[in-house]
Amino acid sequence: MPFKKNQLFQLATIVSSLGFFVDVYDLLLFGIIRKPSLTDLGLSASEVLVQGEFIISVQMAGLLLGGILWGMLGDKKGRRSVLFGSILLYSVANILNGMVHTTTQYAIMRFIAGVGLAGELGAGITLVSELLPREKRGMAAAMVASFGILGAVTAFFMKEFFFWRTCYYIGGALGLLLLLLRVRVHESSLYAEIRTTDLQRGNFLMFFTKKERFLRYLRCILIGLPAWYIIGVLITFSDQFGAAFGIPDIDPAKAIMYLYLAIAFGDLSVGLLSQRLKSRKKALFIFYGITIFFSILFFLQKNGSATLFYFICAGLGYGTGFTVVYITMSAEQFGTNLRATAAISIPNMVRGALPLILLLFKFIRNLFNSYIIGGWVTGVILMVIALIAAYYTEETFGRELDFVEE
Length: 406
Hints:
Elements: H1 11-40, H2 45-76, H3 79-97, H4 103-117, H5 120-131, H6 134-161, H7 164-182, H8 189-195, H9 211-222, H10 225-235, H11 238-244, H12 252-277, H13 280-299, H14 306-319, H15 323-333, H16 339-352, H17 354-368, H18 371-391
Helix pairs in contact: 1-2, 1-3, 1-4, 1-5, 1-6, 1-7, 2-3, 2-4, 2-16, 3-4, 3-5, 3-7, 5-6, 5-15, 5-16, 6-12, 9-15, 9-16, 9-18, 10-17, 10-18, 12-13, 12-14, 13-14, 13-18, 15-16, 17-18
């Protein structure tokens, strides 16, 4: 079938969507099967907590490193090379993850998988943004992100029906099957035009050589921070918040499932909204508003029901759908020779900021001796930072992507 530049449902969009589905499945799988897998390896309850925190920190370190490496590779060698290489790496790592017998082996495999997982979303959105006309870029990015988020829901149900080792084998097998589709994906024509030039491509240090470019890069990172505040603080520790609100027996795994299911709908909605408003920034601020509204509801709970708690988690997830906007804006902020480096590294810088967010949360809750105060004060600080960064971020809707960074 001939390639059509204006076709929304082209192979690159479909394959990127499927790739991010597997990416999210594998990214969240450890958090979902952490307890049964480590218990099966012979660890005590206290060791499960300590080793679990260590292994997930190692995985996040892999994501941070991979975000830089895959981003540079995407601009030096092409977007297709990242789509192919990243999924091959994390698919093999996840299959090997199902064969581990020690926590050291487990940590090594999660680090390698983290490096691989870092490249998928940014490379996919970069590719479809450059392949599609500007009026369809936002919707295509929303499709990739929303379908991919369903991988989290799938991981939850896989944990319910399969042994933890089998869950890793399934994720690895799905990734390897995608490689058959990847072979037919077209390279970006915009990238192909600059590939034969002498322009610097994929030089990560270029983000720091000009003040204006560095501030662009920094703002793109800061506007994404509230997403990982929601995911990494409110939802990951939802059982602790539930206890503080007088709502017992909150299951963090179930909270994650509701959150990510709603994020999928949020991603689609924000994509449609940005197209309707012809503005990325207006859509971003509207979804910031939704996030703030449900955050307020979250902290107003007292002796409520688990059903209401999970409903608010879903509302937070819907608002967190703004993630697709900030990643799309990141791709559109930079020239072709730095676009993949930006779009891939920025979301992983945001993920990598989670340990700093947790340190801030821990400091504030200890300062006020209150889990609840620590939670909402941390949220206010991060949201104010994000709102200021977003205000000074340039509108990118309708921008042509054929420019380069000097």
